[in-house]
Amino acid sequence: MTIPMHWPDAVGLLGVVLVLLAYFLLQAGRLHGNGLPYQLLNATSAILVLVSLLYAFNLSAFLMESAWLVVSIYGIARGRKRRA
Q1: What is the pLDDT of residue 83?
Q2: What is the mean pLDDT of each successive set of 10 residues along the chain, which is 84 residues long?
Q3: 60: Cα separation from own chain's centroid
Q4: What are the sequence ranges of the domains in the chain?
Q5: Contact, 69 vs 43, CB < 8 A?
Q6: Do 26 and 38 contact (CB within 8 A), yes or no?
């Protein structure tokens, strides 16, 4: 049995893989929670999942990913301010 996969599904799955990778690397001590790479992985994953939600909308997932993106952007901005 094969599950048909369209490009929005693939984009959303890539977003899920990236957020899980970011969390794994954080737990493994390979990334720091306030570091730019971690924040960029989180922001990118949220954007990818949001793109997939344009084709199969789910309100709760949309709210979660929107919040995830806003928090990631806040972390990026805060990091830039701290480094300046």
Answers
A1: 84
A2: 90 98 97 95 98 96 98 95 87
A3: 15
A4: 32-84
A5: yes
A6: yes
pTM higher than 0.85: yes
Q: Are 53 and 12 in contact (CB under 8 A)?
A: yes
Q: Are 18 and 44 in contact (CB under 8 A)?
A: yes
Q: Which helix (H) or strand (E) holds 49?
A: helix 36-53
Nearest to 54 by CA among 7, 2, 21: 7
Residue in the structure block whose two tokens are 């989180």 = 42
**Cα distance between residue 75 and residue 53, in whole Å:** 24
List Cβ neighbours of 9 (8 Å cut-off, separation of 6 or more): 52, 56
Q: Is 58 left (phi over 0), alpha (psi -120 to 50) or beta?
A: beta
Whole-number Å distance between alpha carbons of 51 and 55: 8
Give the number of other Cβ atoms within 10 Å of residue 55's Cβ: 12
